[in-house]
Write a structure and sequence with these properties.
- This protein folds into two domains: 109 residues, NAD(P)-binding Rossmann-like Domain (Rossmann fold), CATH 3.40.50; 183 residues, Rossmann fold (3-Layer(aba) Sandwich).
- 37% of the residues lie in helices and 16% in strands.
- It is built from 13 helices and twelve strands.
- A seven-stranded parallel β-sheet has the order 8-7-6-9-10-11-12, sandwiched between helices.
- The longest helix has 20 residues.
- The radius of gyration is 21 Å and the shape is globular.
- The model has no long low-confidence stretch (mean pLDDT 96).
Length: 314
């Protein structure tokens, strides 16, 4: 089976697929040759490439679109379904993506909380005048989105003696107890959930309902000089609301692995604020590569046997 990884520079993913699927033809293509490669492929792995009706029509031999990760917001699910092409992803739990992103969220909590950006400036200036930041230890933390990533983060925070609350569409007292959370709030009580929280971590998928979920009102409900971390998608946080809160000091800092437009413009004014930033790479580690390749292999094998696919989205 010919499997096209559409992003040609992601060598670690290609290597992981070759290891997991040694009897299959794993190929990549340069952008200008992508159309021809799509026409010959049985399986597309979009990675960070969009899948529109154009790509779907080019895929005359296409049997499956299999994302190497959870995000499919750039895949036209309805058009794929209309053309009889299944789309599947790699959920955060089975792939260990949840653990990888939760670890990165903790990294951002520490980096933003301890004001790493200012510390780097102090090094460059040979200054010993360094800020006193916020420690994660014994902090009150709100995790918005208690799915795979949020749950994994809550478990990590137990070691820091944090007072953790969560936000979930459907509150679950049993889950809260399992994760050591004080409470899980319903999604219509965001402002109550973030109140008195020194750290707020956003870990929800991007949908119509979660676009601009973190508004000015939500940020205003957070304590002054608190820290906001976003490892979800950029548009989940209202851009103007975040910029205003940072510029006037309501937020001490923000940890951002995602942005409103990506790749982010390095001249974006957010970089003039107190931010700890990374280029949308929370899952980029060996743990996720092994786990995601394992899930993809399982679906390729199901496809070959004519069985129902796992994690199909359309």
């Amino acid at each position: 089976m010919r499997i096209l990884l559409m992003t040609d520079w992601m060598t670690p993913i290609r290597d992981a697929l070759n290891t997991a699927l040694p009897d299959h033809d794993i190929v990549t293509a340069e952008p200008e040759k992508l159309s021809d490669a799509i026409a010959q492929a049985n399986v597309l792995i979009p990675a960070r490439n969009p899948i529109t009706t154009v790509e779907l029509q080019q895929g005359t031999n296409l049997q499956l679109i299999q994302q190497f990760g959870a995000g499919v917001d750039a895949v036209d699910l309805e058009s794929a379904a209309a053309m009889g092409i299944p789309v599947a992803n790699v959920p955060s739990g089975p792939s260990d993506l949840a653990k990888a992103v939760a670890e990165f969220a903790l990294f951002h909590m520490i980096g933003a909380g301890r004001r790493f950006a200012t510390l780097q400036q102090a090094l460059a200036k040979q200054s010993v005048q360094t800020p006193f930041g916020a420690s994660v230890f014994e902090a009150r933390v709100c995790i918005i989105g208690v799915g795979g990533v949020g749950s994994a983060l809550a478990r990590l925070l137990q070691a820091f003696d944090c007072d953790v609350v969560g936000v979930k569409r459907t509150p679950d007292d049993d889950l809260a107890g399992e994760l050591g959370m004080k409470r899980i709030y319903p999604s219509n009580q965001l402002q109550a959930a973030v109140r008195n929280c020194g750290f707020v971590v956003v870990a929800v998928p991007l949908t119509e309902k979660t676009t601009n979920l973190i508004t000015t009102d939500v940020i205003e409900a957070m304590p002054r000089r608190s820290v906001l971390v976003n490892v979800a998608r950029g548009p989940v946080v209202d851009e103007n609301a975040l910029m205003a809160a940072l510029s006037r000091g309501h937020l001490a800092s923000a940890g951002l692995d995602v942005f409103w437009n990506e790749p982010v413009d390095p001249t974006h004014p957010v970089f003039k604020e107190e931010v700890f930033t990374t280029p949308h790479c929370a899952s980029s580690c060996d743990l996720f590569l092994r786990g995601a390749a394992r899930v993809v292999r399982g679906n390729i094998e199901r496809l070959e046997r004519g069985e129902a696919l796992a994690h199909q989205l359309n």
